[in-house]
Amino acid sequence: MNDLSASDNLVVLHCIHSLSWGGLEMYTTELILKLASTGLKQKVFCLSQGRVYEELNRHNIEVLTMPGKETSLLGQAQWIYKTIKEHKITLLHSHTRLDMWACALALWNNKKSKHIYNLYMNATNKQDFVHRWLFSKIDVLCSSSETILNEARKNFPIAPEKLQLMRYGRNVEDFRPYPQKRIQLREHFHVLPNQLVIGTLCRIDPGKGVRELVLALDHLEPSELARVQLWIIGDPTISGKNAQGENIFEAASKELYDWIQAKRCEDKYRDHLIYIPFQTDYIPYLDALDIFCLASHKETYSLSVLDAMMMAKPVIGTNAGGTPEQVGNNERGFLAEPRSPESLAQALRFYLKDAAAIQAQGLLGQAWSKENHDWKKTLQGFLKIYSELSAPSKNSSDVSK
Predict the structure, then answer these.
(1) What are the domain boundaries of the chain?
(2) What is the reported pTM?
(3) Check whether domain 11-169+374-390 has CATH 3.40.50.2000, yes or no
(4) pLDDT digit string (tens) for 87-124?
(5) Architecture label for domain 172-372
(6) Banded pLDDT at 394 (limits 50, 70, 90)
C-alpha cells in the first residue's frame, strides 16, 4: 500500500448539486477522480442533468441520483439519510452551500457519520441561531485560502480547530510550454509582433469583472491600445436545461455575453477584443498569453489564477477576497481595485511600460504555485482528514439505532 492509499473502512458520499460547469464543478470532479485513483471507496450524489454527472459517469464513478424530480433540501436530506444506512457511508463531503445544508439535515439524529465541507466561497457573517446549529453538524471545514479561513474564524460559529487549510491540487506536470501551439494561436488571432496578449479564463458572469476588463480598454491611449489584444475565454453561467436538453443561461450572464459580442464588432475593438468559447484543452491558450487577468469583484481563491501562474504568467487580479494571497504584495502580478476599469487600465499600462516585469513576476508565480498546489500533497491531506474522522470513537452512537 503506497502513501496515497485509502483505508479499507472508508466510504465517502460526495454531494454536489450544481448544473453549472465552472471552476467549482470542474475542481470537485477532478478531486473525486483523483481520490478514486487512491483506492478510496466513494459515491457521488448529484443531478443527472448536469455536466458533473456526465463527467463522473464517463469515468465509471458510482453516481447516485434521487428518483423523480424531488430537489428540495428536505427531500435531499431524507434521501442522504437513507443512503448513509443503505451504503454504510462513513463520511459526507459537501461541496456547495446547499449541499452543506442537506448533509447537515441528514445528520440531525446521526452522531456517528462525519461531515466535511469544502468552502469555495467567501465567509460572510453567519452568527444566528440557525447557523450555530448548522455549523455544529460540520466536523471539518476546508478551504484553499488562508484569507477565507481567517474570515471563517471571525464570521462563522465554528470551532477554530475544525478549520483546515487544504490547498487546491493541480497536475504540475501538465503545465508545460506549447511553443508551436502558441505560435499557431497568436497567428490565428492576428497578434502583431509588438502586441501583448492579456487574457481571462472564467465564466461570462458579472461578478467575474469581465465588463470592467473590457471597459479598461477605453481608458488606454490610442498608442497603448494598439499594443494590446484582450482574449475573453469562457461561456455564460448555466442555470438549467430546457426540454430539448439545451443549456439555459442565467439572464445577467447572457446579457453580458451579448454585450461582449456587440462590443467586439465595434471598429475600436475589432482588432483588440477576442472572444473564445470555453476550451477543455485550455493550457495551450494560457501559454499563448503574455499576461493573465481575473477582474472578479471578490474571488475566493481562483483555479484559473493558479493555472496561469503554473504557466509562468504574471496575474492582474483584484485587491479583494483570496486573490491578494495568490498574487502576493505585487510580487507575482499586479493588484487592481475591484469594479474599476480605470485601475485595470493602470495595471495594463504597467506591463506596457515594464516588459521585464512580465517574465520576472511570471517565474515567481510559477515557483510559488508549484510548491503549494501539487495534487500529491492535497490528496495526502484529504486522506489524512478522512482517516482521522473515521477513527472509532467511544462516544459514537450507531446510525442504525
Answers:
(1) 11-169+374-390, 172-372
(2) 0.84
(3) yes
(4) 999 999 999 999 999 999 999 988 889 999 999 988 99
(5) 3-Layer(aba) Sandwich (3.40)
(6) very low
